[in-house]
Design brief:
Elements: H1 3-26, H2 28-52, H3 59-75, H4 79-104, H5 111-137, H6 147-174, E1 178-180, E2 184-188, H7 189-214, H8 221-249, H9 264-288
Antiparallel strand pairs: 1-2
Helix pairs in contact: 1-2, 1-6, 2-3, 2-5, 2-8, 3-4, 3-5, 4-5, 5-6, 5-9, 6-7, 6-8, 6-9, 7-8, 8-9
Length: 297
């Protein structure tokens, strides 16, 4: 990696991480608006990738629907309300686009693919990022500053990014056999294994130090590590899925929003999958964790 590129990465991280921590701690509209902007930008990147392959998705509609998922999640906390809105909004936009194709696309401009790419772009960006809001609300303090809420959101995000870091160094040290060379030539089997091990170790430490000692949650090292077993592979698959989209479009980065890092998809590909998996695990955990042995709590 060129020194200038590394310097840009470090600079973006030095500025971005404190801002991200502050937004997650504040929660509510500061976090929601930031996520909505990220969601809209990410949806636009997906639409541009589709355009390279000749599919002209409805970029404004994708960006608006993607942001709307997040905004609604902030305005109306809770999975049930969000699910009803997301279902209605997605069906509504799909129906509108199917009719709009009569005038905006026509039979020779792939109206089906255009509508499908639009919905897909919104779902994998805004749809996924809403789970950061849902995780934040598990603390019982929606719209209020909370370190408990912040630690819940940070759990899958940290596991996704630390797993990627472990995979990078593990691949450099021991990588020989390629994982999926047709999708991501740089990734190796050894890197994937190192990433999974690193994710589980990080999760165990997070459960012990952050959930247990700091926040006093009934989630010990073992329970958090089990979450790492689930989140680690999911995050790696998210990374590979985004690489597939870029490979199909023949581009190196999905965008240029973050200097040295690429676009929203480049930086948050693993996180977009880790967030829903992390929410599913942490939301269900209290229902079966009580009474389990081996130091779960």
């Amino acid at each position: 990696m060129p020194v200038s590129d590394l310097a840009r990465r470090v600079s973006v991280a030095a500025v971005g991480i404190p801002i991200a921590v502050a937004l997650i701690w504040f929660g509510g509209w500061p976090l929601g608006l930031a996520l909505a902007l990220l969601a809209a930008a990410g949806a636009a990147e997906v639409c541009r990738l589709a355009a390279v392959r000749g599919v002209r998705a409805y970029l404004p509609a994708a960006a608006a629907l993607s942001a709307a998922y997040v905004v609604f999640a902030v305005r109306h906390p809770g999975l049930e309300a969000l699910a009803l809105f997301a279902w209605a909004a997605t069906i509504g936009v799909a129906l509108v686009l199917s009719v709009a194709g009569l005038w905006l696309r026509g039979p020779n401009d792939s109206p089906l693919f255009a509508a499908a790419a639009t919905i897909f772009a919104a779902l994998i960006t805004g749809g996924a990022l809403t789970f950061a809001v849902l995780l934040r609300d598990l603390s019982g303090t929606p719209g209020q500053p909370s370190w408990l809420g912040a630690t819940l959101v940070a759990y899958p995000i940290m596991l996704a990014w630390m797993g990627d870091t472990w995979a990078y160094f593990g691949g450099r040290a021991w990588g020989r056999r390629k994982l999926m060379p047709s999708v991501s030539p740089a990734k190796t089997v050894a890197g994937a294994v190192a990433g999974l091990i690193g994710t589980v170790v990080t999760a165990a430490l997070y459960g012990w130090l952050v959930f247990g000692l700091w926040q006093g949650l009934p989630i010990g090292a073992v329970a958090a590590a089990v979450g790492g077993v689930l989140i680690g592979p999911a995050a790696q698959l998210g990374d590979l899925a985004e690489s597939l989209l870029k490979r199909d479009a023949g581009v190196k980065d999905s965008g240029t929003l973050f200097p040295g890092h690429g676009g929203v998809l480049d930086r948050f590909d693993a996180v977009l999958v880790a967030l829903p998996v992390g929410y599913a695990y942490l939301a269900l955990l209290p229902t079966w964790i009580q009474g389990l042995p081996w130091g779960w709590a």
